[in-house]
Amino acid sequence: MNHTYGEAPLRARHSFTVKHLSALAAATGMAFLLSTGASAAQTVVKWLHLETVPAYVQVWEDIARKYEAEHPGVDIQLQFLENEAFKAKLPTLLQSDDAPDFFYSWGGGVLKQQSETGALMDLTGAMSADNGAWVKSYNPAAVKGFTFGDKIFAVPYKLGTVSFFYNKALFEKAGVKAEDIKSWDNFLDAVKKLKAAGVTPIAGGGGDKWPLHFYWSYLVMRNGGQEVFEAAKNKEGEGFMDPAIIKAGSQLADLGKLEPFQGGYLGANWSQTLGIFGDGGAAMILSFENTEDDQRTHAADGKGLARENLGRFAFPMVEGGKGKPTDTLGGLNGWAVTKKAPPQAVDFLRYLTNRENERIQAKAGMLIPVATGAEEAITDPLMRAAADQLAASTWHQNYFDQDLGPAVGRVVNDVSVEILTGQMSPEEGSRMIQDALGLE
């Protein structure tokens, strides 16, 4: 057994039945040698992830061990890569003999490009078998997010939204009230108050760049709304040169001029940024729905900010913008299966993402589930607030750097940092993104 965390799995005497495997093999279009009356040969299923919270990985380990106990011929092996290494190495891995059987996906243009290379398994047949019982077990929007040309290329796993988390004690010290931050101008005023009180306003991860693109993305959404972004993405109208998008860049530049981030933020990776927030080194962080556990994991003392000292608020609106307060930016994450993966990989994913196991993960504070009915298990107040925000979302937009594809996504991340630091004008940034999109 070669798990990243945890003990070797328990082994049970249940068999992986011939009837079940035959149906699965037919649904996935893969051949599988079956032997009646004899135990199946050991099959290794390689699971590539980037999760850094040990408690979350332990939940996965427990689920994997339970599955293995019921399927003694299967060995689920968790393999880890850090976020940036994951993005850098995955394209090569997918073309190698050492490709994982399934891996974490943000969907969007990146997944679409992977599907076009032939590296991924078309899951439509497997998920539509038995009158679509499997595919119908998920939020329809989640399935749609992983579907290209009527073919499903990933199993939905979780939904998420990016919002601000804040340190209540530091807000109180500066006389800032989160409930008063409704507009972008309110937000900039809060930054100024925090600085005046000797508090670093925001923990920023400029080393990885993508954490800073959230600011630009949200400002584009708040200024232009869905219509402007969709037109730009589809190379229609004025594209990324639309005045609303250029205005978003100007507002990002205004934030940069206030120098709101911690010293050395341009060299800080995401793990370090979470640690700075968890250590009380900054009052705010623009982050994911599971920030409460993430900041605790990366804090120097392993404890981070106490739950009662953490608050959350949505990204503010902008005056005169076409976006709605109920428009959200965030993830739609799933598990993509590689072309040569064994049928057991698909079967395990069905098991991992069923209602019962999604409830277990939701109760642990890991995710906002996509399995219908599993959301009832969310108990953490901050996670519940994120789930409620998503439930009321009028437009849920995938991360720009994922939705626009890897090449354009890299430019978006670069441009966001350049505009924020004053090294590039908003017009130049929009032009660079426009040009990159035109080259695809």
Could you please describe the fold and organization of this structure?
The protein has 440 residues and is of the alpha/beta class. Helix 9 (210-233) crosses helix 17 and helix 10 (243-257) packs across helix 18 (426-438). The radius of gyration is 22 Å and the shape is globular. The chain has 18 helices and 13 strands. Mean pLDDT is 91; it is low at 1-40. The protein has a six-stranded mixed β-sheet with strand order 2-1-3-11-6-12. The longest helix is centred in the middle third of the chain and has 24 residues, at 210-233. The protein has two domains: 18-160 and 331-385, 3-Layer(aba) Sandwich (D-Maltodextrin-Binding Protein, domain 2); 163-330 and 395-438, 3-Layer(aba) Sandwich (D-Maltodextrin-Binding Protein, domain 2), CATH 3.40.190. 46% of the residues lie in helices and 13% in strands. It holds the Pfam family SBP_bac_1. Residues 1-40 form the signal peptide. This is Carbohydrate ABC transporter substrate-binding protein (CUT1 family). Belongs to the bacterial solute-binding protein 1 family. Its main location: periplasm.
